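Known limitations

Structure tokens in this collection are predictions and should be treated as such. Users comparing against experimental data should check residue numbering before alignment. To illustrate the layout, the record for AarF/ABC1/UbiB kinase family protein is reproduced below. The input appears on top and the generated tokens appear beneath it.
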Amino acid sequence: MLKKAEPKSLRWQRNKYSPLARQLDIFGSAAALMFYLWWDSVFKNDSTLHRKRRAQWLVNTLLDLGPTFIKIGQALSTRADLLPLEYVEALGQLQDRVPEFSDIQAIALIESELGNSIHALYRDFDRLPIAAASLGQVHKARLHTGEDVVVKVQRPGLEKLFKLDFQALGKLVRFCRRYLAWTRKYELEAIYSEFFNLLYQEIDYIQEGKNAERFATNFSDYPRILVPKVYWRYTTTKILTADYLPGIKVNDRKTIEACGLDPKKINQMGICCYLKQLLLDGFFQADPHPGNMAVSQDGSLIFYDFGMMAELKSLAKDQMIRTFFAVLKKDTDEVLDTLIDMGLIVPVADMTPVRRLLTFILDKFTEKPIDIKAFSQMSTEAYAMFEQQPFRLPAQMTFILKSLTTLDGIARALDPEYNPVAAAQPFIKSITISQGKGTLIGELARQARDFVKYKLRQPNPTQIVIRRLEERIERGELQLRVRTVESDRVLKRINLAIKSLIYACCTGFTLIGGVMLLSLPGYSGLGVAILTLSGIWFLALLRSLLILGVKEKFDKFTEK
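Generated tokens:
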């Protein structure tokens, strides 16, 4: 009789996994990725097929490294603004390719946590999981009282693996901070701490249950927002039992339309729901990928996963509200002021590139579908802006942006003609007519009424064009500046190339000198010292070539 082949064991599934072995695996994978990027930049391997192979290697590597890195890959899969399309598409597979663990392990953990046999706990229990995620998997079951439920089971050994990753990535972040000065402005340590704080919360299913109940309370007056009920008798830190609420995957446009539902209305509901979470509640789902949301047969929106929730504490809600309505009004100066107030942009002497980029984004992407090719119009300004590095994202804001970019991707999958401003109209209308108590509602209502007045007083298209032309002339945004930026770019690349040549010469000279001294009697010690110096020069050469390759890649991208 033929036996089914056992699936290949991944690195993170080892029974005995020492901190040193884990660090070597993580650092080795990171070094391999950096080497591949350097190699491709030097030898110009940028064909679509080659990028797909590299992206698939990255996906397999993340799967092999385990849950922490799968989470990172899932976050990157929504960033089409940062990664090539081939990488975004490949990383999107991580939502569906997370390997499940055996039903024997799942049942053993349930019985251990709940202190009873599986048959005593549930009338029926499906051994085959209906979903597998990076941190756990979900089985359908039925209670003895008749309710259909889902049982979320945490992956065995997950907490131990997180501790190993916490140590390894902590060393990597400290290495970057110490030896890569350009990474300091990104506050990697704060992002790293925030990321692991959220991950540790996500593997505490009691906290997830409390989050679900708090979320349900926030939307208790919204019958079209559904949240599964938690059964606390069958819930521990590693087991979560909740109502079974089946639905259509939120980005499955064909099925949604086949059921007679309107994707535009679902988009409106989703956008308004998130605006309420961000601007009113200050408590939002930080991981809204398509596996965490669904649409019921009657068009209601179902939320499933409440492990990764975040609160707006350090960012003042009134500043978020000001920014939101400034975006709606396309007020570049107001948007820039609020971003500076929130610490998202560091003021520099010349803010022209930032202002131009914000104006471009507000003009192009707030009332029409995103056209990625349009970014080429801003290549020079974007390059100048990144050269100055005025952006500084606080750790908390990275999760807000992750949520918004993921939600935006879902909305555009549902409706290619998705219009963010139009989708937000019901929320704006509800706030405009509200007379709620408290300063927050008052600020929202005031901003909403100001926005309505702005729309009524809005000038005609000809007046807008003339006004913008005048503003550009006043700011001195001439083509001469663009050429200056391009010249600076070329000079910096030439400077890097000259440094690389010097490093190469030093490497060669010391290498030859060391080899010659080794062959002479009595000079072997000096020969070893010079060869060591040659190795140092070689590392400096590699670093210089890597930076040069990255700059050339970025220049090539901005020139397209």
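For this record: The first strand starts at residue 124 and ends at 125. The chain is about 60% helix and 5% strand. Please report discrepancies through the issue tracker.
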